[in-house]
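Dear support,

Our group has been running a series of protein-ligand predictions, and this particular one with iron/sulfur cluster is the one our PI (initials K.S.) wants archived with full inputs and outputs. We had some confusion internally about which version of the output was final, so please treat the block below as the authoritative record. The input we submitted was:
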Amino acid sequence: MNPMDLATYGKNTWCPGCGNFSILSAIRSVLAELDGQMQSIENVVLVSGIGCHAKIVDLMNVNSFYSIHGRVLPVATAIKLANPDLTVICFSGDGDSLAEGLDHLVFAAKRNIDVTLILHDNRVYGLTTGQFTPTSPLGFKGKSTPNGSFEHPLNPPELMLASGATYIARGYTHGIGLLQKLFREAILHKGFSFVDVLQVCVSYNNLYEAYNKRTYELKDHDASSYEEAQKVIRSWNYDGSDVPIPLGKFYEADARRLDQAYRGSMPNALDRDNSISELLENFI
Ligand SMILES: Cc1ncc(C[n+]2csc(CCOP(=O)(O)OP(=O)(O)O)c2C)c(N)n1
Ligand code: SF4
Ligand SMILES: [Mg+2]
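Confirmed final output from the archive:
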């Protein structure tokens, strides 16, 4: 399959220079490559939230569900539990999954549900034109913080490590080769996989210069060690300090998954021989 086989005639309204173009290109090539290797593209479902990031599903000729702001993971969880044979990939924003949808993100990691979440982390509300988000740096000046934000940013990979995610990585939209590698690994990983993508929003939070100067790719990092992962993740706290920013796979582990456990203990929801009353009997 050719990556352009996954293109649509949808109108692309992203600003010229937006980092979302790299995410789109990377996911198209990875899914085209995995088609047939992993399973057919017909068994892949994309789920998005609401924001500039979410428009990606309009541009992908793949089954998709355009959900509502903050609720990408409840929809993805339901799809995976109803049909565990599907590969479910979520596209979410930093506002989407770290503000309104934060509890869903923590619980998806805690449950280790076998879905992938790609976070378009532009560290701003892009679609609503420039308000600060949980990953905006201290002092960020935007529409809702004209005098600068007073809050310290969250460190999403650290939150994911503490919550139980079993694949955690960070990419940057100026490094498409690494993005492809991380997307491929995350999709093939069995369990909750989280890829934080430093996605530059050229219109409201243009961090190209800082990221080009400070990002580096991890070498000789032991991703099987929780302690090593914690150390490298904590080496940059999304603040404005001039420290190097590591990119790559931080952590990968094998652990019990919700979809596995659920399938073992509940009748298959897709089996038409199971009547609703039979299913409900499990809860009495
Ligand atoms: C339930 C609900 N709450 C709030 C909004 C308003 N809203 C739409 S997009 C958005 C912010 C998007 O920011 P982010 O998730 O970071 O995505 P980006 O646009 O930066 O890709 C908000 C607050 C909404 N549409 N629905
Ligand atoms: S507002 Fe920002 S995130 Fe949205 S399309 Fe434009 S550059 Fe991209
Ligand atoms: Mg955003």
